[in-house]
Amino acid sequence: MKNLKDLMKTIQDDELSENEIEVFADSVKQALELAAGELGVDISELDYQILEKGTSGFLGIGRQPYRVLVRPIITEKEEDFAEIEQKLHSMPDVDLRVKDVPKNVDGSAKIRVTKTGIWLTITPPKGNGRHVDLSDISNKIYALRIQNADMVKVEKEVRKPSGKPVKIGDWIPNPEYDGTMTVEVTDDEMKAFAHFVPPRFCGRHMDVDDVIEALKRAGVVTGIKEERIAEYLDRMDYSQPLLAAEGTPPRHGRDAYIDYKVRIDKSGIQLEEDEKGRVDFKDLDLIENVVVGQVLAVKVPAEEGVPGRTVTNRIIPARSGKDIQIKYGKGTILSQDGTELTAEINGQVVYQNGKLSIEPVYVVKGDVSTETGDVVFLGSVIVSGSVQDNFTVKAAGNIEIKGTVQKANLEAEGDIIIRQGIMGREGARIESTGGSIIAKFIQTATAVAEKDVIVAEGIVHSNVDAGNRIICNGRRARIVGGLIRAGEEVNSKYVGSDSFTKTTVRVGMNPKVLQQLTELEENKRSITEEFDKVRKDVTTLTVQKNNAGGHLPKDKEELLGKLISQKQKYEQRLNEINLSLEELKAYLNMLEQKGKVCVEKTIFPGVEIYIKDKRFNVKDPYNYVKFALEGADIRLSEYELPDLGEAQKLVIRRRR
User: Fold this and answer.
1) In angstroms, rounded to a whole number, what is the distance separating the alpha carbons of residues 355 and 326?
2) Selection from 401, 342, 349 nearest residue 378 by Cα
3) Are 109 and 138 spatial neighbours (Cβ–Cβ below 8 Å)?
4) CB within 8 Å of 550: residues ≥ 6 apart
5) In angstroms, how far apart are the furthest CA atoms of the chain?
6) Which residues contact 119 (CB under 8 A, 6 or more apart)?
7) Is 348 in a helix, a strand, or coil?
8) Does pLDDT of 93 surpass 50?
9) Among residues 191, 168, 194, 164, which one has the least CA distance to residue 179?
10) Pairwise CA distance, residues 264 & 287, whole Å
11) What residues have CB less than 8 Å from 79, skipping those under 6 apart?
């Protein structure tokens, strides 16, 4: 009990409970409205205390707001026990026996006089609370000057309270004692407040019908809150006005707006971490690529406004939303109804001056580096600088690099032009899946072109594949080291070096077909080795089984079954590979005997030349020579100049 008393004292000393709020407003009425919204209760359920009275000032100068302390209206007992419970839950050091103290609420009684009669409601106590005594009711009846109360019903209800209204007498009109009310309608006619004067003695309390009738006499005909009025009257607490009716505010229509389906704000760079917390600074995603037919933007139409209505049934007009038009630029198509914008071409989305357009060429002003990230574009890409280590440029069109390409990856469906050459350091890969590669030089890199590879100065220790030709025709043009493969021709000033650097040149077969053939042969060799091992194991176990009279231990029998199944799979796979090899070789035999290696100056020893499946090992230096297949042998003849017609046109076109 001592702990409980100390706790009660602590609660009384608190300056502000959690259910109280302090409001600054231009008036007490406005403060109550704000507090009701914040606390989620009706304004009639609020009590308040003016802490500082506001002033309007002179012409608005020196105006001070009201400072009002607002709290919900609850009974003293409920308030005490609510605060006790809160304190008990927030104080872990309090004795557990204090937490188990039950809620003890005394019973209560109220008498309400209406047109339908005199009604008694007795609320039973809670916990160890005090029961309502018959003398309490008798005193109430006496104080109200009620002469016709049925005391038998009163005694019965006191003995066993139901908590519901019980009629204990008929109403006898006493107009001078009856409760009254006035109606206050706000200036904007959006709210109507009812102010009540409670009845005296046995005077009648107002009913819902009385309040509604008074509201109508005051001109309030819509937005009447009947349930709220009934609850208010049932509480019989008239200390606060009742918000009896509320109008419906107008709902202005939302303006039309453009829902962009592509990213138009590229000011912020989003860096994402992988599962190990590392950030890839190459993947900046600065380019917004789109394809033909992709939806770029959709117009969401404006909404019509919904008129409001005051409590006096006056219509408040609403503003409809404003319309807007989709602005569009080149490379886009606007639908006939003007609500949808789509891409007309593949390319990069550009948003300028409020309109979208599609650019088929993306220009990088400077290097491809950490400032730009990797570049992936559905059109052509022009890089005015270089491509630094470990970065990627991919394009659905052409790629033109005005600087150098370092240990990077380039991939294009069209042509790739590299003005200052490739310094690959054994890590660069340049691939044109549908065009040619043109570079000043290629050093320690991999280059693959569907058509031609044309190099001005030299190819050094690189792996270069071309579907048609590899031409190295500058003044110092040289092919030294690496693997050079072309479908039709390899033509260079020099091939190899005077230090006998190993250089392999293959012509007469498309490198892709040759690569496929090589992979099939490697697969065949690997599977054949595995097949031979399995076959030997099957043979060994089969012999053991025959020697044992057709029986093996369970584990060996299971192993034999698995080996036989594996052997059958290897046999099936080898048959498939052999069939593919036969088809490829048949295709190669059908091809014309194309393929030549032309060297204008010198080809050095250490160079191996393959034309189709024939091999020529260069053991002596040769000058101004052509290697070509005649019949079944590789023959030497006079050098042939390369046909640079298309290649020269390509270079001139790109320079322009």
Assistant:
1) 7
2) 349
3) no
4) none
5) 141
6) 111, 112, 113, 165, 166, 167, 168
7) strand
8) no
9) 194
10) 10
11) none
Domain boundaries, the chain: 2-99, 108-169, 180-246, 256-265+283-309+316-359, 376-514+593-649, 516-590
Cα dihedral across residues 553, 557, 563, 566: positive or negative: negative
Most confident among 53-62, 178-187, 539-548, 646-655 (mean pLDDT): 178-187
Half-sphere exposure of 94 (CA within 13 A, CB side): 22
Cα 39-40-46 angle, rounded to 5 deg: 60
Q: From residue 207, how far is each of 193, 231, 498 by CA, in Å?
A: 16, 11, 118
Checking 565-568 for CB contacts under 8 A at 24+ apart, the result is 566/534, 567/531, 567/534, 567/535, 567/538
Give 3's pLDDT tier (boundaries 50, 70, 90): very low
What architecture is domain 256-265+283-309+316-359? Beta Barrel (2.40)
**If you search the block for the tokens 């139409």, which residue do you land on?**
301
Q: Which residues are within 8 A (CB) of 110 and not within 5 positions of it... i.e. 6 or more apart? A: 120, 121, 236
- 3-state secondary structure string across 234-288: HHCCCCCCEEEEECECCECCCCCEEEECCCCCCCCCCCCECCCCCECCCCCCCCC
CB-count burial class (<10 Å; 0-12, 13-18, 19+) for 480: buried
The angle formed by the CA atoms of residues 321, 323 and 326, to the nearest 5 degrees, is 145
Backbone angles phi, psi at 619, to 5 degrees: -105, -20
Nearest-CA neighbor of 626 among 614, 635, 615, 613? Answer: 635
The beta strand positions in 54-95, using DSSP E, are 66-72
* CA angle at 238 for the pair 29 and 167, rounded to the nearest 5°: 150
Cα–Cα distance, 31 to 16 (Å, whole number)? 17
Residue among 200, 254, 238, 243 nearest 220 (CA): 243
Rounded to an integer, what distance in angstroms lies between the CA atom of residue 588 and that of residue 592?
9
pTM score, whole prediction: 0.51
Which are the contacts of 432, defined by CB distance < 8 A and separation ≥ 6? 411, 412, 413, 414, 415, 416, 448, 449, 450, 451
Look at the chain and count its residues. Answer: 656
Tokens of 89: 């839950």
Identify the residue whose tokens are 């000032």.
Answer: 57
263 vs 523, more confident:
523
Residue located via tokens 């042969």: 521
3-state secondary structure of 647: helix
605's tokens:
């020893």
Task: Choose between 342 and 278: higher pLDDT.
Answer: 342
The residue type of 261 is K
- Residue 590: partners with Cβ closer than 8 Å, 6 or more residues away: none
Residue-wise pLDDT tens digits, 526-560: 999 999 999 999 899 888 888 888 888 888 888 98
Nearest Cα residue to 167 out of 208, 114, 89: 114
- Decide if 382 contacts 361 (C-beta within 8 A): yes
CA distance 573 to 467: 29
* pLDDT confidence of residue 64: 75
DSSP at 302: P
Look-up of token digits 């204990």: 168
SS3 409: strand
Q: Which two tokens stand for residue 592?
A: 């014309």
* Inter-CA distances, 517 with 524, 528, 579, 581, 614, Å: 11, 16, 12, 7, 15
Give the span between the Cα atoms of 468 and 655, in whole angstroms.
23
